[in-house]
């Protein structure tokens, strides 16, 4: 990651300073719970509330950013109208300002800067960094009744010290996506995708050989956090992982992890030339959508994405190694939270209640093809009828052990940097697997001391 070391240092320094600042504030009687009755008048005194939200609770922001068809725009506006109407029931005249502050590291950095400056949003979303901000006392605790209908797996990413600091608005899990037309071209049965690692590798090699440079076997995402998400299921299938179950000790250099990376290294040899080094996820997976490759590891968002690209794509559970077990990782798991410095605690919590509700999640899932975290919404027969491929992901959720990526107790960005360096040096470069993992293990252990 460009400037990764400088960014990690700045973020760690800000986190330390912010912890000290908030610690001093809490000693002066600051509330630590979203249950506290805080003012909801916003900046307009006794007038209507103005709620600032970093993120998009629908297909796009209210201005229909990145949407093109009338149907997409209508669905997008319907979701915003639903949230507005629900909020109006408790806060008449409320104004909700939606702001795009990026995702992943960009969003994390923007949030850190905003809380340090004392002007964070009222509500935001995120994915893997919620426990880190909760540990810093930057988030408000969420009432248990708001989370009772949400699936435990996705909610694990919203917890810190046994308490909930957010709600999951949607979630995901990985499956194997395959282009049926490419399989046909290579003389393979498009209705018989691989079920084991050996079958997958054998099919990928046959497809690459048959394609003669026109099409290939598999795309393998290797770089950054996106690569880690797609590598983790294969390590877990063998009993490996990035940490111990309690997230207290790193376990980068295990034989199980090495075996998973060795398999993916072989699989990457069947990928389109240069594709393993791509940072652009859209460009990478459009190779499957457009018939340049047969297989890729895909979340439920690929259902609508591949359909938009006119791909005759199928979805099945990830292939499993000999002696392994089905396992996965929680991904695309959008967690919504209220910032503790917000002066609109009550309105912010009401926004979270709506995001967690069956009504909102059904609307969003039907519009986007994404998986709801609300159990009642997920069991809606209308949803499966409208998007049959979601049944594959529902079966995976039901039958595969899965959890989020770990959160490290300290120096998180630098620990991730060490792992990303290892995965890329193996899957993009030619560095020996054991040496790369041992180096990453040592670096991570030193950072966590």
Automatic annotation (TrEMBL):
Q: Which GO terms describe its molecular function?
A: maltose binding
> What Gene Ontology terms describe where this protein resides (cellular component)?
ATP-binding cassette (ABC) transporter complex, substrate-binding subunit-containing
Keywords attached to this entry: Signal, Transport
Q: Tell me the first and last residues of the signal peptide.
A: 1-24
Keyword Electron transport (UniProt): no
What domain of life is recorded for the organism?
A: Bacteria
Name of the molecule in the record: Carbohydrate ABC transporter substrate-binding protein (CUT1 family)
For this entry, list what GO says about its biological process.
Answer: maltodextrin transmembrane transport; maltose transport
| SUPFAM superfamilies, A to Z | Periplasmic binding protein-like II (SSF53850)
Give one Pfam family.
Answer: SBP_bac_1
Similarity section: Belongs to the bacterial solute-binding protein 1 family.
């Amino acid at each position: 990651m460009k400037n990764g070391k400088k960014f990690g240092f700045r973020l760690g320094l800000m986190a330390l300073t912010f912890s000290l600042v908030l610690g001093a504030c809490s000693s002066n009687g600051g509330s630590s719970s979203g249950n506290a009755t805080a003012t909801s008048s916003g900046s307009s005194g006794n007038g209507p509330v103005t709620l600032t939200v970093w993120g998009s609770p629908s297909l796009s922001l209210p201005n229909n950013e990145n949407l093109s068809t009338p149907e997409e725009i209508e669905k997008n506006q319907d979701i915003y109208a639903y949230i507005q109407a629900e909020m109006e029931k408790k806060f008449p005249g409320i104004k909700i300002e939606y702001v795009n502050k990026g995702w992943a590291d960009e969003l994390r950095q923007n949030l850190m800067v905003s809380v340090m400056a004392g002007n964070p949003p009222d509500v935001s979303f995120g994915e893997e960094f919620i426990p880190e901000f909760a540990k810093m006392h930057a988030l408000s605790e969420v009432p248990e009744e708001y989370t009772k209908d949400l699936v435990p797996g996705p909610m694990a990413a919203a917890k810190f010290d046994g308490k909930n600091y957010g709600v999951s608005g949607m979630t995901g899990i990985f499956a194997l996506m395959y282009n049926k037309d490419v399989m046909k071209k290579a003389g393979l049965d498009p209705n018989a995708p691989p079920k084991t690692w050996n079958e997958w590798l054998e099919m990928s090699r046959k497809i690459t050989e048959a394609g003669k440079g026109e099409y290939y076997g598999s795309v393998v995402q290797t770089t950054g956090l996106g690569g880690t998400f797609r590598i983790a299921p294969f390590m877990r299938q063998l009993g490996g992982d990035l940490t111990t179950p309690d997230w207290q000790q790193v376990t980068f250099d295990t034989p199980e992890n090495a075996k998973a990376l060795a398999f993916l290294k072989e699989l990457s040899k069947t990928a389109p030339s240069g594709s393993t080094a791509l940072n652009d996820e859209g460009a990478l997976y459009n190779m499957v959508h457009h018939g340049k490759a047969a297989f890729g590891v895909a979340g439920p968002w690929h259902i609508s994405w591949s359909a938009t690209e006119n791909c005759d794509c199928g979805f099945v559970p990830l292939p499993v190694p000999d002696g392994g077990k089905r396992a996965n990782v929680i991904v695309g798991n959008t967690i919504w939270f209220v910032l503790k410095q917000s002066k609109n605690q009550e309105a912010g919590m009401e926004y979270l209640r709506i995001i967690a509700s069956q009504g909102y999640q059904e609307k969003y899932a039907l519009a986007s093809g994404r998986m709801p975290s609300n159990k009642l919404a997920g069991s809606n027969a209308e949803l499966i009828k409208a998007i049959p491929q979601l049944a594959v992901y529902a079966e995976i959720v039901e039958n595969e052990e899965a959890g989020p990526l770990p959160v490290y107790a300290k120096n998180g960005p630098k620990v991730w940097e060490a792992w990303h360096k290892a995965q890329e040096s193996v899957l993009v470069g030619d560095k020996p697997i054991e040496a790369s993992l041992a180096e990453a293990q040592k670096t991570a252990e030193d950072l966590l001391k």
